[in-house]
Amino acid sequence: VDEGLVTALAKGKATITVSAKDGSGASIHCNVIVSEPCPDGAVDMGIRTPDGYRVYWAKSNLSTSGLCARPEDYGDYYAWGETEPYYMEGETDYLTITQWRTRTDHPITGYNWASYKWCDGSYSSITKYNTNASYGMVDDLTELQRGEKSGETVDDVARVILGGKWRIPTYAEWTALLEQCTWEWTKQNGVKGELVTASNRNSIFLPAAGDIIDARHDCSLSSGHYWSSSLNAEYQPYASYLSFQYYKGNYSLHTWNSYRCYGKSIRAVFE
């Protein structure tokens, strides 16, 4: 602070207090929150974390090589907490996937529990991210680890691929985007999806990229499914996600829960 001019030096919080020098004891203070600047490839949708920092939303979906070139591009599909897609490159062009990546532990046969990294073959033998002994080993982890604390692995694929402060949005952040923005089912450059517009008039487009269950890719162009970083609190084989679907005149848009082994899209955020 220099003669009333406040300059932000780095992300963080500060309390600035001004006190009178006339002996009256009068003073006033204000709290200042400094967020990271919005990076290339992201947009400010007016969403903040619970502690007040801005969350910037990527303009396109995630792929193994980074953010997709266009907002309409589908990107790749990931099981919850996994950092690589299961299929070989190019396989998402087909309704039924036949070529899978090679992996020594948990050989991949499809987006199913037999392939899923964080279990021993079934939803009742979970080995990480679990709060209920009925479903396997309990570690009480409810958010994907990002390597921010000593001993943590990095299970957030957005952090792995994009680095920096990029990550998968939490369930609360998807809910805030859903409740605080206007959503419109539309078509952009020939691709169906949701145009999400914030009160500041910024917008992002979420393509209806479908998802992959076992070996079948649902690319009917009528639905979109985007993982959050949050485990479902009541049923640990589930993780939370954002879902929208338009089918035979019926339209749905909500945050929901799905089996963690299924393949869904990632729309990253930057904090």
Question: How would you sum up this structure, described in words?
Answer:
With 271 residues, this protein is mostly beta strands. Helix content is 6%, strand content 33%. The chain is built from two helices and 16 strands. The chain has helices spanning 157-162, 171-180, and strands at residues 12-19, 27-34, 42-48, 54-58, 62-63, 66-67, 166-167, 182-188, 191-197, 203-207, 211-213, 216-218, 223-231, 238-247, 250-259, 269-270. The protein has a four-stranded antiparallel β-sheet with strand order 3-4-16-7. It has a three-stranded antiparallel β-sheet with strand order 8-9-10. The longest helix is centred in the middle third of the chain and has 10 residues, at 171-180. It is globular and about 80 Å long. The two termini are 25 Å apart.
Please state the average pLDDT score. 92
Characterize the main sheet: 4 strands, antiparallel
Strand content: 25-35%
What would you report as the Rg, rounded to the nearest angstrom? 21 Å
Unreliable segments of 5+ consecutive residues: none
Secondary-structure content class: mainly beta
Number of strands: 16
As a percent range, the share of helical residues equals: under 10%
- Helices, by number, come to 2
Head-to-tail CA distance between termini: 25 Å
